[in-house]
Design a protein that fits this description.
Layout (H helix, E strand, L loop, with lengths): L3 E5 L5 H11 L11 E6 L4 E9 L5 E8 L8 H11 L5 E5 L4 H5 L4 E2 L7 H5 L1 H11 L5 E5 L1
Antiparallel strand pairs: 1-2, 2-3, 3-4, 5-7, 6-7
Length: about 150
Amino acid sequence: MANFILRPAIETDALKIHDLIHRVGINPMDLIWRRFVIIEMADGQFMGCGQLKTHSDGSLELASLAVKDGYRQQGMARALIEHFLAHSPRPLFLICRPSLVSFYEKFGFRVIGLEAMPPYFRSIRWLVRVLVLLTGHKGPSVMGLD
């Protein structure tokens, strides 16, 4: 396994965060560096990130989890998730590609239906429907952990 560390983001990480999120093709909204945890190699090389978003309804979302290409499958995403799980109140929610559902289930997350979603997640379902129509891809899954 790679030799890496987790640390809170600092302002100079903001551009690296934005760049990685855009490269991996996940939601580029609300990338506020102060909410991020960074994963880096022992030599300081930026490898990935993740954040916790608090929404207007008070719900908490694990978001913007990304690891650079070529460095996946080395436990970095797992380390980020375990960090957030150890330091976050419940319930905790996330939105992911259907192909990642089984990965997040390993941490106790479960796909939830509309009736179990907090108001924020219910309110963005129209946006998800539009994206599905535009892209032709299957829509993302909303998962929760109590």
